[in-house]
Amino acid sequence: LTLPKPDTGTVELAALQHLGTDDAPVFYVENTLINALFGLLCWPVIFQPLPGAFFHPFHIGPADLTREDFVARRQQAFEQRFRLLGTGAYRREILDTYKNKQGIANPFVFWPVLDEALLELALHCIPSGHLEALFRRLLNNIKEHRSGFPDLIRFVPDAEQPEQRYEMIEVKGPGDRLQDHQVRWLQFFARQGIPASVCYVRWQDDEARG
Questions:
Q1: Which of 102, 136, 173, 189 could be cross-linked to 11 through a Cys-Cys bond (beta carbons 3.0 to 4.6 Å apart)?
Q2: Rounded-to-integer distance, Cα 93 and Cα 78, Å
């Protein structure tokens, strides 16, 4: 994209305002949305009272969250939650947890950027199979894979095919480049058929001078 350089605001916001329409709204979510959907669905597993996971009442999350055996200790419980993705029950589970746990600390949920309308739109537009693929990669390396998600997400709720109802968009301004963990996520999206793209933004003034 070649856009007029704004007086204030980020390149991501400029791209969002240009790309968004009434029929296809765009949101700045970066690492928050997919993590939140995972955190809300798997809340009972994350806070399962296993030995050594919690030893004072002020834990944001389990003490072993980034340890190698975190998933292995909870594998069966995670699989039970993921099975909900195949039944359609996951939508109600996520929305109910959002309402019932509002404001309670969770290492995957950043409350200030979430609202019910965004969650409902995401649950309508992102196929459950894509969510499962994303969640499983997230669990494969929680410390690394919680970051690197694209800046924006565009929803097209009226698209006929489910896989055409959303697209994740990484925004790069002049001189910026993809980081290694972003490249790895993009490669994963391509393998899984998850719609994602990179939007390179140039400023009109810079182009005129060039």
A1: 173
A2: 14
The residue behind tokens 């998850």 is: 194
Output 185-191 pairs: Cβ under 8 A, ≥24 positions apart. 185/145, 185/148, 185/149, 185/150, 188/133, 188/137
Q: Do 177 and 199 belong together in one domain? A: yes
- Residue 172's φ and ψ, nearest 5 degrees, are -125, 125
Residue 143 lies in a domain: no
Q: Please tell me whether the overall predicted TM-score, pTM, comes out greater than 0.85 for this model.
A: yes
Tokens encoding 87: 């039944």
Per-residue pLDDT tens digits for 30-62: 999 999 999 999 999 999 988 887 877 777 789
CA–CA gap between residue 191 and residue 207 (Å, rounded): 35
SS3 160: coil
